[in-house]
Structure formats: structure tokens, C-alpha cells
Amino acid sequence: MVWLFCGPSSSPMGSMARERDRRPSAGPGRPQLTLRCHVGGTRGVPLFEAFRNCRPVCVVTTNLYFTGHTRALQGSNSQWDQLVSLKLPRNPVSDQVRVIVYDIVEVPAVTAAATVALDRLSPSPSPHQSSSSVSVSTTVSTAAAASFSSSPSGHHRHKYLYVGEVQLNVAQLFDEGKCFDGPWQPQWYTLYDRKRELEWRLARDQRREFPMGELQLSFTLVASMARQFTLQEAFALWLETLASRTTEKQLGKLVPLDGSTEVGDSTGDNDAASTAAAPFDLKSLVTALDEYDVVSEAQLDDDDDDEDDEDDDALTSEQLNDIQVLLQEVRDEDDDEDQSFSSANSSPELLTARSRTSSLGELGSDGYSRDSDVSSSEALSMADSANRYNDEDDELHSSDTSRSLQFKPDGGKLLNLRRRTRSNYLKRYNIDHKSLTSFKVSKRQHSLGVVFIELQSIRNLPILKNKISRRKYDMDPFIITTFGRRVFKSSFKKHTLNPIYNECLAFELFEKESHFSLHFKIMDKDSFSFNDEIALHDLPWEQISAVLSSQSDTLDWQQFEIPLTLTAKKVTPNTQQPVLNIKVKFTPYNLLKRNFWKHAVAVNSPKTHYDFVDLLLFLDKLGCFTDYDALEFFQRFDKHAWAGEFITQNELTRGLETWTKLAEFKNIWRCPSCLKAKKKSNNSRKSKLTRENDLITHFAICCFQQGDKVLKPSYVSSAMASKRWFSKVWIKLTYGKYALGSNNANILVQDRDTGIIIEEKISAHVKLGMRIIYNGKGKESRKFRNLLKTLSVRQGKKFDDPSSVKQIDSFIKFHSLDLSQCLDTKFNTFNEFFYRKLKPGSRPVENADPQVMVSPADSRCTVFSSIEKTKRLWIKSSKFSIEKLAQNYRMDQFKDKCTSIAIFRLAPQDYHRFHCPCDAVMGEPRFIEGEYYTVNPMAIRSELDVFGENVRVVIPMQSAEFGEFLLIAVGAMMVGSVILTRKFGDKVQKGEELGYFKFGGSTIILVLAQPSVLFDSDLVNNSIEQIETLVKVGMSIGHTPGSKECKRTHRSVANANELDRIKRTISVGACSIRELGGVTWQYDTLKSLIKDDLGTPGDVSTKR
Amino acid sequence: MGLFSRKKDAPAAKKRDDLIPCDRMVLDPPQQKGKHGYGHGLSRISPEQQQMYTRVRNHFADEALVLPQDTNASGNDSAELTPLSSWERFWVSRECILRYLRASNWHEEEAVKNLSETLVWRRETGLTHDPNASTAPGLSAESVAVENETGKELVLGFDRDSRPLFYMKNGRQNTEPSFRQVQHMIYMTEAAVTACPQGIDQITVLVDFKLYKEPGIISDKAPPIAIARACLNVLQNHYPERLAKCILINIPWYLWAFVKMMYPFLDPATREKAVFDEPFEKYIDPDQLDAQYNGKLDFHYKHDVYWPDMVAKCDASRERQYERFSQFGGAVGLSEFDFKGTHDELKYPIDYDMSK
After folding, report:
1. Of A1041, A1045, A1017, the residue nearest A1029 (C-alpha)
2. Residue B332's domain spans which residues?
3. What distance in Å separates the CA atoms of residue A117 and residue A112, rounded to the nearest whole number?
4. Where are the compositionally biased (Polar residues) regions (chain A) (predicted)?
5. Residues from chain A contacting residue B229 (CB–CB below 8 Å)
6. Annotated active-site residue in A717, A763, A877, A1002
7. pTM here?
8. Residues B121 and B198 in one domain
9. Do A612 and B72 touch (CB under 8 A)?
């Protein structure tokens, strides 16, 4: 049976006003069409003629929210003679206009509950009062449609009695342009009772019309932006949009009175479908509707405030309520007619999105969900916080896709469920469909498999020399293995150059990590001083998997010999290169699953053969199963349960693997090996280190013992793993817990390509200085601010001086910069070096798709879907707000609740030009004067509103794909100026340069209206964990909701030097500090500066 | 009376001096006063029901009717299909069809479906009683004998309406849960059903939860829920309309609490059938009741006496009925009343109209 789908008249919610608010870019060049409908009056309506106390009201609607209505008349006078203006949706899906006539019936509140039954008008009108003589189904459905309280707390309840409606098509009304020039002659249209038609169709499986009288209407079309477009053009444009937006255009027919009595409308198309749907259970539909009403009514109440300002008529609150009820009525009625409430592509997702938290998905192969947990939760919260309204287009989208949905005849229950799902979920959270539907439905994200590595031995380590005694000695080597976020540290072996470890490590490999690489670092453990780094190697996972898949038995251990690159300085080089021997094994997920069940079966019951009762008992241990489930097992293997036949353990394992009733497995949460419960607890979900969120992989790792020691990934970064205990104690004491995202001075940055997390170093005195400035209050800190400002300006001037060229070398040396990509290597001033240009092509745009947004700068990036989240996770200042950031620059578009924000922090060593993230037209830039605070995360994460107070340039950009967004270049400590290389009105291509910063660290902030962009999930993921991600100009950072996320391909890191370079980009290597005598280059410069200036040495305000 | 407390215990059993010694199953119920025979003939049904009956009977009397040999065969085309054997036709008696019709609330298709399912199930389980058929392994008197060594299930005596009494003594459990237990239960139900005298096709089940401390008894725990449920499903699906009354005594407190909570939600028909913690003698004449439950039968279970005797008696009774069935023509729809009686003339021929 075909599901009755959403007809064109049923429509999306959302209002033009909001539309304009939220998406300024929806169509700057597109005119707004307004349909003016002059409602004359009715004639021949038996109800109004027979009863003197009717209060007819006429509602004109193109869809649910785009609704206008006439005033309610008294005393059965049905001559409104009123003009109703109706904005046509900018992105129309249907050109249908419905004119519906209602009669308002006032019911005293007390009796309202009792008199739910309102008789329907029939050709021979019966009194419209409570009547129990009508048939049950009619009663219920009428009641459902008609009983709404107009004022929840008021004394009166209004019931809107549906009288009839006229359905018209705008396209046909105005074809041949006949009424463009002036008001159209009023015409009489027949009023039909569509509701009854539907009921009739459902009950009797045939069509019949119920003409209720006639209605006089005339229409005019008005277009905004009349200077640019004529009405005809505007209308043609509108039709074009319409045509492009409707997948199957549903043609309606005009029904003039003098014409044939043929009734053609949208429902006509659906007719075949709906007749087929005849056995559809009307009653259950009605109960579903009832539930729906409650929820949506509540929602309407919430929306009160918003409705207020959009209603141009001055209305008393009671009248307002009337409208809402009317809207409600219309919507409900719509549903009644078209049953459009199943939005096919969102509801199953929603279901699974919720059930994911249940046990089902965890073991499941059939749990469908969105790409990843994080992205979905992101989407939900995004929708939650931002978009309170369902966008009209989206609604239609989803209903479009529902067209192909097949439905079972006994779909009443399912319908109910769907209804509830949507009403609960969508109504409560008002989820933006766009952001939901853009996620592709995919298999639940579980890991690709588990990687097992055995660290065997190292050969040929070099001999070290002691600094003081100059004696040669054998080292105490240990290995730090890093893969993405997992850091393993082996034990150390005493006094050996050929240590044998035989230690194992195992971790889950996720798909998004498959381009990461394994990073080995050999360290020498010192008893009294810091550990020394000896050698390292970087082995891309792709390389390993290529080797693994090339061998005959892909599941077996594979030996790897890894040549190590020596990094230690004071070594006596061995003649032979040191080699690390490891064994690697990769077990894919499906195999793990089988293995898991095998063990689970073996642990739970020692039998090898299972008869019917054995199986029952076994299943009883796993969860709640019936004997029919057990019989199913026997049936699958063609065994006769009742004849006392057996299934073997193997068969049982196989059966369990493919078992679909996973929700029933209530008791399988205990790992059969370590007997620890693996059910997701709050604790484990919060834990940032464990990635084993899956019992099956947990079990694989848990079982992997082999007699050898298994290492645990208990370190945050490899730097932390290589620290000595006293350093750790010191860090703990001074900065608190060392963990991802904890609010401390340890700035953790993840390289996007290798996945390595590296700690960004700030020299201790800088940290101290920052603490004084940014946590201090009162006079002192104000002094410091002034100092900073003068210093920054002065420094800027100084760096513009040709004499500053001298400092370039030390800068390059300090940051170990690679100048090979630079366009020009001759610099006249330091600043010139600072905003050096790169060779064309060195920062290619990763994805040419205009729907993909790319990073504007080489930077450390954090992205957040709402300001709220930003403030919770990153910008800790309570004073921060978008208004302050952009100095109220067109604040109507960027509201705190529905604005995404991306922060790109540039460090001094970075390439300091910023580029355009997408094809856009540049608006008028605005320079805002301010302070010169540092943009270091340490400051960002303090009470100080750095972004809101620093000097900055707000550049509005207008893009076709992403709408209007702001690119804010925030100057920071010592950045005297932001220079724009493009000007107002320029059309800038994606990846083209926009401008540059002069000396210092600085930040680019992108401010986007929410629904227009979805950030890449890895960035979102990292940002939630408060880790910055290292991105380069041209890397994808996000995409429009309509397009897919740009899949990152691996840019393999060629060698260890390359890796080292990456690290240097992030952080200043300790060795270079040492080389420079332990003092940063800026320190010297500044010291002399301050001395000159103030005469007081201050080691506080040093770099960045 | 507290929520979970049980009713006041019946007065302690008096020492009787008029005990009747007994250690075997009794086949014939005591003569009822003023009644001829044990039960009564077939009860009236409406003409529509008669028509329905005729259609169902014709379905199973059809020579062309073939059924699969096992329950897995549904939807499997290659499954071996065989027609009904004479023993199966014997089983599909008039009363049997009526039972299935009543159980399905006079829903014809459902009755046919359920009956066919039971036939197939009986084939798979090995309950055809056909000496020629290849009996499934397991379900024979010998194989389940060990389960009854402590006499945990018994068929002994009759209630006031001449229905055989089927004792289930949970506290005499002697084995771990196994498939054999289920088979044993099926075997004993079959025996109890066979013990139904003429005109009776229902049994009364007496459940005693009391723990007996005797050698060989290992627990008084109720069987695991899964098995209990499976057994219940068997009784429900394959022995419909066979239970007249189920009396439970010595219910442990937790079960009692559960029962109390569930009682309002039970189906009225089921509720009527189940009796909780009422003395057996309220429903059963003392001279048919075990002395242990305040009756007069001085019954002590001796496995080597009771079991072979019961098996032999059931088999003999069944054989005799089958013989009479063959004698009367061996067709589907003959009445059990005729098999079980001793009369020579067929009282209910195949085309007998029960609506008259």
C-alpha cells in the first residue's frame, strides 16, 4: 500500500520574516511576491443560512505558516469584503493556495471537554451542537479537528468548525499574465468540504465531492523590488524556482463556478494512493492526531512571542490566540487530508539516534545511525539551540522523499509511532531538518578493527656520551608509540643497546584514522635529568596495511623492521643504523565479532551440543528470549527441536553472530574475559582516553594477552609520556591536571594529517606574565594594557624599519622555519618577512566544490556550532558576545543562538596571510580600535574578553553557498595592523588572498549564520574536547548542509624530518631554545625596548 | 490480612483410619450417583458451529491432505510431505476438532491452522503412537522414566466431575533442567489425557510446591522461567481446552506475591481455572485424593510399581481405543465417546449432527 504523502498544500513551517532574518542570502536578487486575495463573501452555504449565530472566518494560506485571515464576522454575515495579503514563499514547493472557511463556535470552558463531538455539516445541515447521534468515527475525527482551546487559560474555548475550502493554483490564476495590471474581477468559486471527501474516500473507497456553497474571491499579485523587476519577471522567476523545487509538479486546476464541476486538485494526484489506503484505520489516525495536538499546541504557546512581532495587524492577545488556533487547525486539517506527517528520512534516523544509546546499537550490525556520534549530537544540539522553527523547504524535502515509502495496511500503529516520534522530537526540539537530513544514513560507526602490535626489540642503538664526565655509556631505552591520540610507553631496559621488549599494545582503528601513522620514539631514561630523545620513526598506517594485505594470510602477524632516524646529538654513531623490530596484526571487526561470540558461548556454557532446553537456558543467560527465538535457531540449521536434536556450538556461534534481535541481549554487557561490565556508564563516556566504546573490541583487546605485557594508552601526549616523574609532579602542582581540554596552560594541538597531539610550549615566564595580566584586576592590569599597546605599536614600527632584517635569521632558527615554499627570500624589513608570500600552488584548495568551505589561514582551528557552546568550551569570558565582537555590525543576522563560529589562531611562525574561505563578494570592512591582548588559548580561556576588546577588522562577506558571513581579523599582541589586499565590492574566489597581518600572533574568526555550514566532524570533535586542530590554507573545514563532508585523503608524511617539521610548526622545539641559550629571541629585543622606554625591566610581556 | 500473606492454612490433616491403600494409577472413576456412565454425551452446538465443524472435519478427512514431517518445513518447498496415518486420524477425533474450534473461539481457519500445527508438532516430537512410524528418539516411556523416579508428576484419581487428576509436585524434582524434563512433562500430559474416561476430555492439574525431603530430590526450585514458558506454550498450543482446573497449593511467598499482583490482570476465563492455595478436598472427593492432602488414598509412590503399571495401562487403553476406532471405520471425526465406551453400536456416526 502506498502511503498517503504530503500533498502540495501541506507545507512547511517557517515564516517569511524569519526566513529573511536567518538567511539574508536566500536571495538578495530575488523579489518577494505577495499575493493579495480579496475575500468577498459566501453564498449558498447552508450553515450560514440556516443559523443566525455563526461567526464565519476565512483563512487564506499557501502552507501552514504563510497564512492570512479575515476578521470573524458576527451573526452569520458572511460578507467579509476584506483584503488578505499573503507572502508567497521564496522557495516555493507548491503553488497551491487554499482558502478555507471556518465557523467559530464558542463553547464555555466547563462544557468544552464534554462537548467534544461537533456534528459535521451535512448537505442537510444539522444543528452544530454537541450531538451523540453521529457515527463514532465522524465524531472523533471532527472533535480532533475542531476542538482546540483558543485561550488556554481563558473562559471560552473556540472551536473552529470546518465549513469548506477552495483550492487554487497560483500558476494558473496568473497564467497569461491576465491580472498583473490591476485587481482582478471577483469570481465565484465553489466551496468544497475536503475533509468529508477524505473521510468518504477512506470509508467507502470512492470519491465524492461535497460542495458547500460558493465563495467570492479576487486576486492580485504584488512584487517587492519593483525597481529591478517587473511583476511579470518576478512571477516568472518565482515559477522557475517552483518548477525547480518540485520534483513532480502537481498540477491543480482552477475551479470557476461556471466551469465544469470537475474538481481537480492536488489530492487528485494522490487519489489512487489514497483509495488504495482505504482500510487505513481512521480511528488510530485520529488518536494520533489527538496526541499531536497536545504537543503542538504547547509549542504554539512557546512561539507566542515570535508570532507577535510578525503579525502586522494590531491584534489583541485573544485574537492572536485565535490565529494560532487557526493555524493549528489548518495544519491539523492538512495532516488529516494528506497525512504528511511522516518525514521519511528523518524519523528512522531519529529513532536510531535515540536507540543508539540503548544497547541495541552497541553490538549491532543493523543499527543505523548518522556518520558519527559526535556529528549527530552536534547536529542535534545545533538544531536545538539555533533553529526554533522548521524550515519550510526542509519539511517539503522530507515529504518529497517520503513519497516512495511503502506502508503496510495495518500501519495504524506504526503511523502512531512515527507521529509520536516526530511530534516529540521535532516539536520539542524543533529540529532543523536540513541539518539532520544532510547526514547520510550509514552503518553504525564502529571501528574497522583492532590493531595488535608487539614491540620486539631494537638493534644497534648508538652509544651515548655523558656531558660532564665524557664517558661513553649504554642507555636505558624505552619506546613511546603514538597513534593519533593513543600514546603507549614501554618499560625501559637497563644498560643495553640491543634491548628486547616483547611488549604488546592493542588499539582500535577507526576509519577516520586510517590515514594516521604510527609514530615511534625511542627515549633514554635518565635517572637524574630529563629523558633524552634518541631516535624516531614514523610509519603510516596505510603502509602497514598494504603489507598486511599483500601477504597470504592477512590475519597473521607480520614482521616489520623499522629503520630509526637518530635525533640525539651527543652520540657516537654506530656503524649500523638502529632498527626497531615489531610485529603487527590487524583483525577486522567482523572476525572479532565471531571470536567474541565464540568466547562468550564458551564462557557461558561448557556444552558442545545444545538441545532445545539447553539453548533456552543459554539464551536466558544472555537476555530475554522466548522459546520461539530458540526454535528459530533450530529452524535455521534445520534441526528438529522437538525431536530432541542438537545444534553444535559452532552453529550457535554462527547463529548469534547473525542474530538480529540484539536489543534483547540484556545480560551480555559483561566482558566474558575480564568480567567487567562494559555498559556505557556516564564515567566511561566522559573519559577522553578510552576509545573502546564497544564490547567486541574491548573483548578482543582484553583477551589479547599472549603472556606478554600489554601496554595501556594512559598518556595524553607523547611529550607527557617522555617526561620524568618530577616534571609531571611539577606540572600537576602548577597547572593542575594534564588532560585533553582541561583549562590549563598546556595548549594541545592535533595535527590534522598525522593525528599526533603535540603540546604547544610557552616559556614559563610568559605563562606567569599572562597570569598576572589576565587574571589581575584593577590599576595594575590597566597599566599593563597601556604598556602592551605602546609596545605593540612601537614594535610594529620597529619591524617596519630596515634594520630589523637582522632579526629574521634568529627568528627562522628559533622556529625552524622552512623557507622553501616562500615566494621571495629577500626581505627588506622584518615585517616583510613576517607576511611573506608563498609560492603559488603551495596551498592548493583541497576541494574545488563551492559547497565546501576551506580554511582561511595556516592556523590552529576550533569550531563551534553556537556561541553558547563556544562560551562553554572555549571562550570563557562571560562578556563575550557576537554583538560585541562585531560591534553590532548587522546584528540582525547573527544571533547568539544561531551562529556558528570558527576560530583560527595564527602563531608567530605561521604564514601570516589570510585567504578567502569560499567564493564570496567582499562587503565594506570595518576597523575597530581596541586592545592588544594575546590570542593565546590561555588568555582566551580566561575571564578577559580578548576577541571583544582587541583591535580588529570586520569584513562582511556575501557568498552564494554560505550566505552572508563575517570574517573578523583580530589583531593580537604586537600586531600593529591588519592589512587588507582586497577592497569593498571585490569578488573573491575561494582560496584567494584577502589580506595579511603584520607581526605577531593573531586570529581569524569566521562568523556564520547557523544552518548554512556544517563543520567537518574531526574539527568539531576536537573542539569539543578543547583541542585545537592544525589546519592549512585550503584545507576543508566545513560544507553546506546539502553536500557531503570532504573526505580527507592522506598526505603522507615522507620522513621523520617532515614530522619534525610539523611539530615545529606547532611548537618550538626544546632543542632550539637550548641552542639560543635558553632565552627566546623576543626576550632580548623586548628587554632592551622596555629599558629604553620605561627604565624598568619587565620580563612579563614577552612574546605573543 | 496483609497484601502478600496467604489465606489461613487449612486445619491440619486428621489422622484417618479409613485409608485406602493404593500405589497404582486407577483407570476408572467412581460411579457418579444418579448418573449413567462417567461423563455425558456430546453437548449441543449451534447449526453454524456444526457447519464449521463439518468443514474442518472435511479438511482433515481429505485423502489428499499432506503435512510436513517436522516443524521447520514451513516455507520449505523441498520438505517431505506425508498424508495422515491411521493413528493420526484416530487422534483427530470429533472431540479433538471441537476442542480446537472452541480454543480458537470458533474461528475456522485458525482452528485448522492450529490443528495442523499440532499434528506436525506431534510428528516431530514422536507422539504419533504409531508403532509403524519411526518414533523420534527420546520420547518413550523408557527414556523419560528416570525423570519420574521420585514421582514428581502423577496421574491419580479423579475429581468430582470424573476428570483425571494430574499431580505436579515441584518439590520432588530429581533432575537438572533438561530437554528430557520437557519430554517427561509431555509424556505425562499425554498419559493424563489418555486417562480421561468416556465423555470427559479435560484434566484437573494439582500443583504442589512443597519441598519433600527424600532421597533423590534435589531441589524445590521452580524450573527456570524459560523452560516453564516453553512448557506452558506447549500446553497452550498443543493441548488446548484440556485444562479444567489448576489448583496450586503451598505456593512460596514470592510466587504468591506475584500471583496476587497479577490476579486482577488475568483473563477471566483463566482466572476461573486457576485456584490458589485452597485445599484440594474442596474440589475432590476424599476417596480420590491422596491422604497427604487430606484424602483417603494412602498413596506412596513406588517408581517400580507405579511407572510400569501406568505405562502399561495407558498403552492398553490407547490400543483399545484405537482398535475400536478401526472397528468403527477408522475415519477422521469419529467420537472419542465411542472409542472409550464398551458399547457395540456407533453412537455418533461421522455425519452426526450435533446441533439437533
Report:
1. A1017
2. 47-138+318-339
3. 10
4. 340-360
5. 626-627
6. A1002
7. 0.50
8. no
9. no
